[in-house]
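Exercise 4. Each item below gives a protein and its sequence. For each, produce the structure-token representation.

Item: C2 domain-containing protein (Gonium pectorale).
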Amino acid sequence: MALEAGTLRVTLQYAKGIKDCDWFGRQDPYAKLRVGSQEVRSRMVRDGGRNPVWDETFDFNVINENTLEITIMDEDTVVRDDLIGTCSVSLARVREQGVDRVQAPLTAGKKAQRQEGFVALALSFTPNSRLRPGAAGYGAYGAPPYGAPAPAYGYPPAMAPCASCGHGAAAAAPYYAPPPPQAYAQPPYGHAATFAYGSTSYAPPPPPSAPSAPSAPPAPPLAPPPYGAQAQSSYYPPPPSYYPVAPTPSYGAPYAAPVPYYRS
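Answer:
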């Protein structure tokens, strides 16, 4: 059966017969208490020696933790603090019965593990099921319902006129909400359209001109000649200037044609 979650209250009363770590004078003990990841420190007892008295109370939230760990230290100002002793206290009894008183023996030394003195504690436990994750009221934040409408925002409130702004009558002019948008109506043909901003009127655009006569379609391609017929050549003779001109002899008259000779 799982133990119930709740609040553990620990009263650190006193220690008796603990180890003395100072050679000269009396030691200054203090305690560190730890439950799970929660750790607290008690006040330092000046010149507490081997029998310091604290009478301090600490609270811890307990869910699944079952052990209280205590460490007694001697505070030094010149060197690091000395370890006096440690102890562990089971929380099973106080979580079942609600209260418990313990005199936990201190174990001094890291190797010898010898006991020297004890620490007196008073424990109390108050169940609180809300400390368990997933319990109702544990502080979980639920998601808003799906499809919730977004809040509507209206126009901002009117600003009060400022008499000391130094802008004259314009500073004291009241603020009016903008008018709702209006549908635009097409004016009849031939009338100038008037716009809301200013008194300038603009004439409508001129009517479109009549379409011009369509151009003549291109001539269809020539039909090919019948099979076997010689195709008409599209070759054109070269111009007269293309042929060379016979040179004119530079001396005498041109040769006459020879007289034909006939035999009798």
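Check: The first strand starts at residue 6 and ends at 16.
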